[in-house]
Amino acid sequence: MRRIRLRSLLLFINLLLLALPLAGIWFLRLYESALIRQTESELVAQSAVLAGAYDAERARLLAGGAVPEPETAEASTLPAPLPAAIRTAGLDLAEDPILPPAPDPEPAARPALPISAAVGTALAPVLRDAQQVTLAAMRMVDPNGTIIATTGEDLGQSLASLSEIQQALAGEPVSAMRQRAAAAPYVPGGLNRSAALRVFVAAPIMADGRVVAAILLSRTPRDLGQAIYGRRLDLAVMAALLLGVWLLLTLTVSRLVTRPLGLVVAQAQRVAAGETGIVAPPDRSGPRELAELSEAVARMAAILERRADYIHSFAAHVSHEFKTPLAGAKGALELLTDHAETMTPAERAHFIQVVGASLDRLDLLVRRLVDLARADMMRPGRSPPQALAPILQDLAEIWRSRGLAIRLEVGPERTTLAEDTLEIMLGNLLDNALQHAGPGATVTIAARETAEALVLELADTGPGVPAADAARIFEPFFTTARARGGTGLGLPIVRAIAAAIGGTVELVPRDGSGAVFRITLPHGAGRA
Description:
The chain has 528 residues and is α+β, with helices and mostly antiparallel strands. The protein contains 11 helices and 12 strands.
């Protein structure tokens, strides 16, 4: 399966983050509700001004005696207010439904009341002039719902069936949202004529404690598209700023993530191809995770290089060590094959002995190599604590029978190292002492405990380790006792086991004769 590139993923995420604010403008209903409430507030303010103008004109006409009779409404003329989903203030798209389109005005059952008609005639020019600025449709009705002043062509008709008028004539100011019946013609510089709804505001006009008229105003609110178009320059600047920030983020992420990661990948590929010494940590501009990844790759490359060098050297030593006994056995067998009949019994016995000794040497080398492989693969674990003295006493009896004098300086020390593992380590050190110090030598095994570890020291009375050889004694196949059967693998086995359990083994510098080896085993050391 093809995997997405990190650069593509980061680019997609950045584009998504850039698109979210822009897409949110179109779907943010709260902003659209704010536009509707703004339209409602403007219409409410206009209705208050017109109500004041109506009241002043009515008072002037009554005071002059031009129209003496006040407004009256017969009970049968105006139906009771119908329940409708309208509010007194604060329209909200999330809470308030959008009502069906407003019904067309109907023929009036009776003409307008004289005083109402006179006031309407006087204020009609005011409504038309105001509409040029506010762009709102305006109507005034008398107490019977008959239109007395309008910005349209419906003068003298009735709005008594409109729920907003019914509630306004009942003394309650109302606001509502209604669907548009049809798209209005385009007006240059006007509001968005393609909006799907209109805001209606109806307000009563009160005099002497009763409703003498009502005002109905409606207007299309600004929608999101028109609001955005009106702020297009600001939004363009904002979009350019966001684009610049996005580009800067992309370049920054590319420098901090993509480029260092590409370098690490390239270095890892070169390491896989066999190159050495080419892994270097990234510069300080990269994030911490990539620096840690690069350091891990560098450590892995160094380990692989060391292992490759070790395997190459190990293979060369194994080849060398196996070549001598194989050559001896092969030569002896060839002589026996070609000249067995002419050889004396002593000569045949000698060559057979050479073959046997060569096979014994090969067998010893194979067993030592197996021990070394097991030591290299050992993993630390834990064993129950046990007394150290009984283990060392049993080991001393075995090696005393082989010609070494063993002296123990052991107290109540305890160890969590498995008994067989401890015997392998000490056995290889005692075998090294037997080969170099010879039978009859004395080996002293001393134990002491510190706060962190158990320390064992093995000191023999042999000739010691020459200074020229001290640095190489833990190298595989290095031995100065090859003639006495030494393989050069005993000390490397001890070192591998100690390293596997978190401990150390070292040659302690010593003045005079004898060699001293110190094994440090941390508390809790064991084997898996």
